[in-house]
Amino acid sequence: MTANTYQPIAARPAPVDTEGAGAWIKANLLGDRRTTLSTLLIGGLLLWYLPQFLNWALFQASWLPNVEACRASGVGACWGVIAEKYRLIIFGRYPFEQQWRPLVATGLLTGLLVASCVRLFWKPWLALLWLAVLAVFFTLMFGDVLGLTRVETDRWGGLPLTILLASLSIAMAFPIALVVALGRRSDLPAIRTFCTLYVELVRGVPLISVLFMASFMFPLFMPEGFTIDVLIRVLVGITLFAAAYMAEVIRGGLQAIPKGQIEAAATLGLSYWQTQRKIVLPQALAMVVPGIMNNFISIFKDTSLVTIVSLYELTGALGLALNSDADWRPFKIEGYLFIALIYFGFCFAMSRYSLWVEKQVNKGKAR
Fold first, then answer.
1. 22 in a structural domain
2. Can you spell out the DSSP letters for 253-276?
3. What is the number of structural domains in the chain?
4. How many whole angstroms separate alpha carbon 111 and alpha carbon 119?
5. 293-329 pLDDT, tens per residue?
6. Is 23 contained in some domain?
């Protein structure tokens, strides 16, 4: 009988490192042959064009608000146009000496938007805070009270107008979209037909047509002597347009809910609205967070189209600032890059917040 002898086990390979910069680069940039080829191609283009862009944008750029210096430079960017025209770009045609008012009003509204995204402020009094801030916003912008000079809405512009149109249209479009999405799944033919017609009619025309109708055609059907402010008409047009698109996003989430859950709720004696509020909508909205945020970002960018009705928001204010001054007109690229950076900042913030919300609502599904 032979004695048992010790047989060592062969060494196993070390586990693959899944954390750190090296692991991320290997997984995302060098994962396979096609990914590696794409990384090398894009990297080569960046190495070719990035130094040229940096040379134009930074190293040979002119930073002083001096048009002669910009023309003398010739090969670099002229950021002096921003230093020279930033107040007209940011505040539009608002009276120069009164621009502290839109500055304060926009700061309050932006602060409220940020606060509304923080869980700590999700209290019943947040709705009252919205009403208070909006009242202060319109009081500061319009004036005619408390010794403030009256400024008509057609002189509002720039960033304050962009933020106002985007925030109010988003806030009003969401509940409308929710009702329309539920209406399209209603068992009542009249409600379902009305909601379907609304969605298909609004989605069948471009936003420019809606704004044109709201601004120029709608007043023709009003009684003589009765007018509605152009800002209100534009706001209603953007809201209804955005609600139609958002309703379809929400309806997609509603259709993803298994019918058995609705039947189980009916078995428990829950009413229709109790079922929607406690079972269906929480799950449906959680599924379509990316789609809803896409719609929000689209609304924010679509506010640039109100220029067609002579409301000069951020993009329109830039055109107003440069087209009215022949000396600075050749430096439009720098101006558009400036407002593109502003748009990117807001849209990127919304995108990051969407990822956070998506992570929060899907915590129960994480393993």
1. no
2. HHHTS-HHHHHHHHHTT--HHHHI
3. 1
4. 14
5. 999 999 999 888 888 888 888 888 888 888 877 888 8
6. no
User: The whole model's pTM is what?
Assistant: 0.83
Angle at 286 between CA 283 and CA 291, to 5 degrees: 130
**Locate tokens 């042959």: which residue?**
33
Residue 167 is predicted with a pLDDT of 92
Q: Tens digit of pLDDT for each residue in 255-283?
A: 888 888 888 888 888 888 888 888 888 88
Is residue 202 domain-resident?
yes
List of E strands, 298-356: none
The residue with greater pLDDT, 108 or 13, is 108
Structure tokens at 281: 């909508």
Please report, as a single letter, which amino acid is at residue 226.
Answer: F
> Which domain CATH number covers 355?
1.10.3720.10
pLDDT band for position 233 (cuts 50, 70, 90): confident
Mean pLDDT of the chain: 85
- Per the listing, tokens 């019943």 go with 124
| Host domain of residue 134 | 81-362
pLDDT of residue 139 exceeding 90 = yes
* Residue 367 predicted with pLDDT over 60: no
3-state secondary structure 59-71: HCCECCCCHHHHH
φ/ψ of 236, rounded to 5, equals -65, -40
Q: What is the DSSP string of 153-220?
A: GGG--HHHHHHHHHHHHHHHHHHHHHHHHHHHT-S-HHHHHHHHHHHHHHHTS-HHHHHHIIIIIGGG
Specify the long-range contacts of residues 198-202, CB closer than 8 Å, at least 24 apart. 198/244, 199/244, 199/247, 199/248, 202/240, 202/241, 202/243, 202/244
Give which of 164, 98, 94 is closest to 317, Cα–Cα: 94
* Amino acid of residue 326: A
- CA dist 201 and 162 (Å) reads 26
CA distance 91 to 313: 8
Query: Does pLDDT of 364 surpass 70?
Result: no
Residue 120 covered by a domain: yes
